[in-house]
Write a structure and sequence with these properties.
Number of helices: 3
Radius of gyration: 35 Å
Distance between the termini: 107 Å
Order of helices and strands: HEEEEEEHEEEEEEEEEEH
Shape: globular
Length: 312
């Protein structure tokens, strides 16, 4: 039997042991929770890093496609134009494109500038068009066998623009005399017997609108000065200070988004009709049964290439 003092000591020892056990259990629990949180943070960090690496990989893949397409186009140009000793070839419309969207791209444009090897002065400008057949790119990479090329010179591109203007606008143009410049006028001023006036009736989604225009002058600016806005065909010209200005020039027919206008004839150099509306221009390659859409910004870019005296 324990004495009173021994009993007190035993109880004190037992209480301290129990308290230490609880403390150790609590400390162990805290360490486990801290470890789990640390692992979770580490996992989140790794996941974040993976997302960054995925972004870099996607960008790098687009860059690889970019470089591969440009190299393939350069090899085509070298093989088909051995007379050119000094040139610059640059891809245009792949920048900023997501890898997942590339399969929908039916053509690529490349600017080609040729130079005199002795003087290093520019000789000529071309647009190299790469036509992409269905399945040209997939998860396995680019199939260059499904890409064909056509080199377009200045006069051929001029034919392209003239044919499209004649297709999308009701204005009858004598290209030898110059490009007409129109401004809007009201119905009261319009005179149907006077050929300097023009009336256009548009039916877009069942809504009929009538617009009236007056021809104010003829301009001798080159065809390459024309710009396509989706609302009208404008002209760009430069003053001495190199500032460019756009003016309303040629009215166009407007149709709804599901309606297309086809050119009355084919281009002489691509065996293709031009099809579209005021907002888009498409090539229909009869030989390949291929429908190729050309963005208006792309068209305006090519116009700038041929309009400016300096390389783009």
């Amino acid at each position: 039997q324990l004495s009173k003092n021994a009993s007190c000591k035993y109880l004190t020892y037992f209480s301290l042991k129990k308290t230490m056990y609880r403390f150790i259990t609590f400390l162990f629990t805290v360490l486990i929770i801290a470890n789990v949180q640390a692992q979770a943070g580490k996992t989140a960090l790794i996941a974040g890093g993976s997302a960054i690496l995925a972004g870099v990989a996607i960008y790098a893949s687009v860059e690889q496609v970019h470089e591969g397409l440009e190299q393939q186009a350069t090899e085509w140009f070298l093989s088909n134009h051995p007379e050119e000793r000094l040139f610059r070839l640059k891809i245009k419309n792949v920048n900023g494109t997501k890898l997942s969207d590339l399969s929908n791209v039916s053509c690529m444009l490349y600017t080609v500038h040729t130079y005199d090897p002795e003087t290093r002065k520019i000789k000529d400008k071309f647009i190299l068009v790469g036509f992409h057949s269905h399945g040209w790119i997939n998860e396995n990479g680019v199939n260059f066998q499904k890409i064909s090329y056509y080199l377009i010179n200045r006069s051929q591109w001029e034919e392209f623009i003239k044919l499209w203007v004649e297709t999308v606008s009701p204005v009858k143009i004598d290209w030898e005399k110059g490009i007409p410049d129109y401004t809007k006028c009201n119905e009261r001023k319009f005179d149907a017997k006077d050929h300097t006036y023009l009336a256009i009736s548009n039916n877009v989604d069942g809504v009929i609108t009538n617009n009236y225009f007056e021809r104010v002058t003829l301009t001798t600016l080159p065809v390459f000065s024309l710009r396509f806005s989706g609302k009208s065909i404008d002209k760009e010209y430069s003053y001495v200070d190199d500032e460019s200005y756009d003016l309303v020039l040629i009215p166009i027919n407007k149709v709804d988004g599901d309606t297309y206008i086809r050119s009355a004839r084919k281009l002489s150099f691509l065996d293709s009709y031009l099809i579209g509306n005021e907002k888009t221009i498409c090539l229909f390659r009869a030989d390949e049964q291929q429908f190729i859409q050309l963005d208006l910004d792309l068209i305006n870019f090519v116009q700038t290439v041929f309009f400016k005296d300096i390389p783009n």
